[in-house]
Design a protein that fits this description.
Belongs to the lysine N(6)-hydroxylase/L-ornithine N(5)-oxygenase family. The protein is of the alpha/beta class. Helix content is 31%, strand content 23%. The protein has a 5-stranded parallel β-sheet, with no helix packed on it. Helix 1 packs across helix 12 (410-434). It is globular, with a radius of gyration of 24 Å. The mean pLDDT is 94.
């Protein structure tokens, strides 16, 4: 072990909203309880950013601003969204808007404002490339975390505990696997910057396909209409139509922090059934107001006697090829199998994300991890003799519910992880004293 490398009680992979909320909770422990846990978060982006390529003009949050980083745990915290508004002199005017749903751009600015308070505990521009066990006397005593800067410089640090909150990786449908490197094939995760680069290199696209039936797909479809007025856009998806998200009050209670205990206590089969039943609260659904705007756009086309845009339900992409003239999709009906080929200047995949840290950042310690389901306090199960605790945030829907990938539970989850860390530290200290 390189004794010159720094050692932390906790190293965090990623510094998005999940680990930012944890940074707040750790700061509270220091200020209110005097509990010191040296920690550092490693973030591959050069500065804080929250889905920057989906900050589409005019897009609003779909959950209440009260579900920020801390309000549901401590509404008196200086890191609440309300205090952000107060600090920026906008609280009264926000109240006059009579809404709990700020624009996505404003909420991003709130998150950046909070993140600036924690610049001292985040190393930006560093990508974690390897996590390795440090074995001493047949036991893993800590973890060696290697990161790489934008300049290609590698750094090693040691962690007694690790928290992984890297977010999801863009999900690329199999049909697009061979053409995903083409700059004309864009995933929604990179939408704004990629569509700008495409226009700079190839000019304004004249025909565009959007693949998907969720909120991102609908938002992108409408943005493309505004961005390229002369383009012909197709929205392609397998379901029968765009379905509205269920955000009614009683259903919304499944996202309450207290509901996590209820769901976690149920058998795995029941949890899986629950996720299936309530998919329409979060996946493959669209805000009703946006559906109505999109439908009105298509209706206005009919009135005008023009049809530049099409919504093509009950369709799947059966084949993809690319050439100098564009990306050609073979669209097949899921009803009768009828196929049609169309060439596009750009294709946008609003196809979601995958979340599996086992095959990524945690692959180096995979042999020590005994299962992929975390316990109630977000700890991965590990073999005997593995002393570090690995916490996982944002990849635990099967155990903790649909809210796990969302903002709703961040205040409660960050406190639970912090308290688990402090309890383990207290137990270690007590054991050392007894010895």
């Amino acid at each position: 072990m390189n004794r010159s490398a720094p050692v932390y009680d906790l190293l965090g992979v990623g510094f998005g909203p999940s680990n930012l909320a944890l940074a707040i909770s750790l700061a509270e422990a220091s200020e209110q309880q005097g509990a010191q846990l040296p920690h550092l978060f490693l973030e591959r982006q050069p500065d804080f950013a929250w889905h920057p390529d989906m900050l589409i003009p005019g897009s609003d949050m779909q959950i209440s601003c009260l579900k920020d980083l801390v309000s549901l745990r401590d509404p008196t915290s200086r890191y609440t969204f309300m205090n952000y508004l107060h600090a920026h002199g906008r609280l009264a005017r926000f109240a006059n808007r009579k809404t709990f749903f700020p624009s996505r751009a404003e909420f991003d600015d709130y998150l950046r404002w909070v993140a600036r308070h924690f610049d001292d505990v985040c190393a930006y521009g560093e990508t974690v490339i390897r996590v390795e066990p440090v074995v001493e006397q047949q036991a893993v005593t800590m973890l060696r975390v290697t990161s790489e800067t934008c300049a290609g410089i590698r750094k090693a640090r040691y962690a007694r505990n690790l928290v992984v909150a890297g977010g999801g990786e863009p999900a690329i449908p199999d049909a697009f696997s061979d053409v995903a490197v083409d700059d004309r094939v864009i995933h929604s995760a990179n939408y704004l910057s990629a569509i700008d680069r495409l226009q700079e290199r190839r000019g304004a696209p004249r025909r565009i396909a959007v693949i998907g039936s969720g909120q991102s797909a609908a938002e992108i479809f409408m943005d493309l209409h505004a961005r390229f007025p002369g383009a012909r856009n197709d929205l392609i998806f397998r379901s029968h139509g765009l379905s509205p998200s269920d955000d009614s009050p009683f259903v919304n209670e499944i996202f309450d922090p207290d509901f996590t205990d209820t769901l976690y206590a149920r058998p795995r089969a029941e949890r899986l059934k629950f996720l299936q039943v309530f998919q329409d609260t979060n996946y493959g659904v669209v805000d009703l107001e946006l559906i109505e705007r999109l439908y009105a756009l298509l209706y206005e086309q009919e009135v005008a006697g023009v049809s530049p845009h099409r919504v093509l339900p009950l369709s799947e992409v059966a084949g993809v090829s690319r050439g100098n003239d564009g990306v050609t999709l073979t669209r097949r009906s899921v009803i009768d199998g009828a196929a049609e080929e169309t060439s596009y200047d750009a294709v946008v995949l609003a196809t979601g994300y995958t979340r599996n840290d086992m095959t990524g950042v945690l692959s180096g310690v995979r042999d020590w991890i005994t299962g992929e389901e975390v316990d109630r306090y977000y700890r991965l199960p590990c073999r005997a003799g593995f002393r570090p605790t690995i916490f996982q945030q944002g990849a635990n829907e099967i155990t903790h519910g649909l809210s796990d990938t969302l903002l709703s539970v961040l205040p409660q989850r960050s406190r639970e992880i912090r308290d688990a860390l402090l309890a383990e530290r207290a137990a270690e200290t007590s054991g050392e004293s007894a010895a």
